[in-house]
């Protein structure tokens, strides 16, 4: 009986050390609230600053995911300190429990977090970039710890898990710059004057209010003959990637006005290519 009483007393003495007290709970809540507010306020301020930074807009927003990681990692560290001073023994124990949690079904979440860290430091794309991944094309509006949010041309918001960067090819159309190449295709009748058509598309490109031309950002106009039509392709950089579609629409409209005036016609309807936005 004496042994049983000793065991009971030992178990009861462990309960206070296992169950966190009210002060610890309040401290954890405060740490989480402060971390959230820091991230939220910094995100809002940096986005406002970026909108006034002109061509350096994307350079400013690249700080946001790095800041999130630093704040969240610091929050985890301070939460651990609330319960115990994380020495080598405690860190080893925590690592073991964390590894077990990953093995029991949290591996996808962990893969997303690792993907977020990789994106933040290697920067395959940044907030403000136009990217294409997993069949989705659009502008990156946020890079979180678990997912990247992309706004598509039809204004849909798509969340792409960060681990997709390890599994899917990711194409960044502007590579962190505000200017971006836009491809504009004009299809004309094969009997039309290709030289005149190329000149017209060139003039529409270089006189657009959206175009950006420099020694490192040249434009070009190319001709490709097909059995039932000719394709005139213009390549030029838009001065702000957010004007991608306005640029393409304006150049196409102005080019066709002049093409029609010159008597250059599109190919017969049965021979018009079905996909006019091929890259």
How would you describe this structure to a colleague?
Residues 1-18 and 275-279 have low confidence and may be disordered. Helix 2 (22-51) packs antiparallel against helix 4 (63-83) and helix 7 crosses helix 8. The strands form two sheets. A five-stranded antiparallel β-sheet has the order 4-3-2-1-5. Strands 6, 7, 8 and 9 form a four-stranded antiparallel β-sheet that branches. The longest helix is centred in the middle third of the chain and has 35 residues, at 88-122. A hairpin with a 5-residue loop joins strand 3 (147-151) and strand 4 (157-161). It has two domains: 19-177, no CATH class; 180-271, Alpha-Beta Plaits, CATH 3.30.70. It has eight helices and nine strands. It has helices at residues 2-18, 22-51, 57-61, 63-83, 88-122, 164-167, 194-206, 244-261, and strands at 130-133, 136-143, 147-151, 157-161, 170-172, 180-188, 211-212, 220-225, 230-238. It is α+β, with helices and mostly antiparallel strands and 279 residues long. Residues 108-168 form the Mechanosensitive ion channel MscS domain. GO terms for molecular function: mechanosensitive monoatomic ion channel activity. Belongs to the MscS (TC 1.A.23) family. Its main location: membrane.
